[in-house]
Amino acid sequence: MSNGMLPSKPVMVFTTTKPHFASAKFVYNYYEKNEFVELSPNIEKPPRLVELNFSPISSILQNNVLGNYFNQYIQQIMAQNDRFTSELLLQSSGYIKYTSDTERDYSFYSTSDLGSAEDKSKFTAFFENASTNQGQEFVDTPDDTSIYLNTTTNRPTSKSADIYSKQANESLIASDFCFDLIEASAANPFSIHSKKNHNDLRDLKTLQSRTRRRTNPALVNSADYVMPVDFLDFENAEEIFRNVDTLSGMGIIAYIVFKSEVDELGNDVEQLGSFIITGLETSSFSDNEVKYGARYKYNIHPMYIIKPEPNQPNVFVMIGAKGKSVKLHCVENIPPPPIEAIEFRYKGNAKIGLNWSPPTQYGNIPDVPVGDIKGYQVFIRESYDSPFEIKKYITFNDMIGLENFPVQESIPEKLVFRCSYHPVHWTLDLQRDQDYIIAMCVIDAHGNSSNLSPQYIVKIDSATNTLKIDFASYKGAPKQYPNMLMSNKIFLDSMKVSNKNKMTVYFDPKLTRVNLSQNSVDPISVLPDSTDSVPSYRMQLINVTKQSDKIVDIYIKNNN
Question: Of all residues in the chain, what percent carry a pLDDT higher than 70?
């Protein structure tokens, strides 16, 4: 018996990376009538765009010598994009890459100027953005859509998620027994991947059966286990490879971003192609080709240049499987500004005329107004203690698809006035010798509402047949809290009492549970619930003479 040596082929093993972070923000610059059905034009100052931010390539790979070098030949490389391969394709014949991914949990976040985030309850989210239509709809969005609100701009933003979550189990499995392995995993009641694995069993069984039928154990061909790649050609190949002749390995030369339109649940509706980001220090990109109201997903993957062996002038390009994914809903949630002032004039026969000037709002382009004001609401009430009632909703919205962006309130049709021009006056019928508080709100094309205009106390004096007008409140009070900015304080911060030895506190709310919308199934409690450490109310009793005080904590338990 003699000893011998079995020849072997070299194996290349490398680890791919991904961007550390990625985010997307919808930027709305100005109004277009067809913005819901047409893409934004590719001009210097587009009406809307999506701004992507991500880790620059230089920050995600410590040693990127090959990437830095071949990046200067990116034009020659991109001309051969039909030769690109992907990490998923670089597998030995007869194997599949199987990823068992668990369900992701998304939450609603409110992002500050510094980029930090905090949990935001549905009730808080609604009242925090109460003057916007989408404020309510965002908090009612299913939890599996990664939609977020920026409190500084009220714009929708999104955080990034890994293409595969951290809980994903990614493996190469031989096709001839893939079903047997995954079936055993699916039957494990303690595995977090069992549900996903169970859903894939039918396809895996078909693959395993097909593989076994065509496999002949008597025949083995080493060519079946060779990695199929297409090497790139360069015009001045000898000169290019002279500087990296002794090197081997991989580097990142660019990012490739795959764009798709998705539905409310995040499922792909249409693949919209891809674009390349070639700058190694680039950390942002603007996509102008977006429709208003559409939902988009951007998957950002590194593009690698790989040189398998030293002293060989061969390189190929591979798209990495790891990456970052961001989703966002392209809607604008910045409320229009309120009306600055209302002019009143008596028209006789108990009718008064209201005149105003449309407010001007500028967005991200300083010299271009947003121009999306498409309606006004006129409100009236009889006293500070009464809620406002809408007297007329004047709308001249010409947006194509406006039915997809209704105003937040449910307004009877008899109170709606539609026209094709921009009105700046209206007439009200009032009772004589009765005080009325009158205010207005501005409505934009997307259903967003401004806060209240200045509020005025108006009265028709029958004795003199004239109008009496007093100022009631500054502009900017939310619709829910019309008395917030009253010129005269109507609430006392403290009460002075003497010669009393007993105090009775009454808690008599008008409502304890409310529905945020007509479609809400479960009403939300508005009671100030207490905890063991946090009371619902706190009352401080101060003895001015003795310079001492006593704090009384009031706890309210919601048993509903």
Answer: 74
Given pLDDT bands bounded at 50, 70 and 90, which one contains residue 261? very high
Count the domains in the chain: 3
Contacts of 530 (CB under 8 A, 6+ apart): 536, 555, 556, 557
User: What pLDDT digit, counting tens, does each position of 542-551 carry?
Assistant: 877 777 788 8
pLDDT at position 28 over 60: yes
Position 244 pLDDT exceeds 90: no
Backbone angles phi, psi at 206, to 5 degrees: -60, -45
Cα–Cα distance between 124 and 130 in angstroms, integer?
Answer: 9
Residues 371 and 466 in one domain: yes
Structure tokens at 183: 């079936």
Question: What is the full DSSP assignment across 467-533?
Answer: EEEEEEE-TT--SS-TTTTBSS--S-S-----S----------S-SEE-SSTT-SS-EE-S----SS
Final residue of a structural domain among 312, 333, 354 = 333
432, 350 in Cβ contact below 8 A? Answer: yes
Buried b / exposed e along 9-46 (16+ C-beta atoms within 10 A):
eeeeeeebbbbebbbbbbbbbbbbeebbeebbeeeeeb
CA angle 474, 476, 480 (to 5 degrees): 110
